[in-house]
Specification:
Number of strands: 9
Strand order of the largest sheet: 1-5-8-3-2
Shape: elongated
Largest sheet: 5 strands, antiparallel
Order of helices and strands: EHEHHHHEEHEHEEEHHHEHHHHHHHH
Amino acid sequence: MAGGRAGVADLRGPGFLNSDPTELKTALAREARALGFDCIGVTAPGTIDSAGRRFLEFIASGGHGDMDWLASQPERRVDPRGLWPDVRSVIMLGVNYGPDSDPLAILKQRTRAAISVYAQGDDYHDLIKKRLKALARWLVATAPSEVKVFVDTAAVMEKPLAQAAHLGWQGKHTNLVSREFGSWLFLGAIYTTLDLPRDDAEIDHCGSCQACLDICPTSAFPAPYQLDARRCISYLTIENKGPIPQEFRKAIGNRIYGCDDCLAACPWNKFAQEGREAKLAARDELRAPGLGELSRLDDAGFRALFTKSPVKRIGRDRFLRNVLVAIGNSDDAALAKEACRLLDDASPLVRGAAVWALGQLAPQDELAAVKNAAMSNEPDESVREEWRTTS
């Protein structure tokens, strides 16, 4: 969800074969599956006009919150030709990352941390980018062309393009839904100067179902197909750099990085496991780590645990902020000592979250004694405000 060009490659080559476009597309699909992609489709660059208009309305409403990179140079996002005028075809690819167990079961284990399914393994940006570059090199070597590859790190509207390329449709939770893989698809794109046969756009198969809307803990969907990111737990725990707003803390529960509720509720997920291999398996140590042990991570320990993980990008301080909110929701008085220990942390963000967690767990008389001592030494106004609002 970050901006930048880390997932972009510009590959050029003379090629050695001027294939028939249909035959080339068939060979491309075969090569894509050999590289580990589960689905592939092709669309033209001018097929997402309506999605572009909705995106501009979303930005104008402020629904993107602090994700300023989304609002930057919108003309490059609403039409692929705004990013690269020479693009003739957009190749969209997907990798199934459906979980091997119920991702919502951990929400009942209040002293354990719930990490979003996609973040329990290696960073998907690296995994998908490597495959995209390999496929792009094959394409350049097979047919004279220029290509650029993208994986969630540039001004590309992957989900509308994936729908236009018949990979799935944007469901009421605004994520892509596939009839074969449910709501569990990583997406990548290859822009090319080749004219390849187009696929028909996928149609919406949500019908009257709104399970994804009903399950949202923070009511982040003002209407079907509309998301207010400022209320979304994924945004609050990942993109949000400041304290988590008071009104959402209880609803977050033990979700310390992202939220799978709306994805997991989708009934199309019943097909997501078919043909899935262990290549995207979660790391055992990230499936259900204990909140207490996570709260004791220093910066070096955080970096070591989350090596190659997308979690590493939010940094230790934001991560501990999330862990402390989960500790406050744990109903486990034994974890109060972890919150108390972090009242002296170097980060005001961590100290403020520790105040709230302690306020949820500690007896009133003990809390009052700690509060008086802490307030007399606390230099940060945001942390002092947390103390003032803690009963």
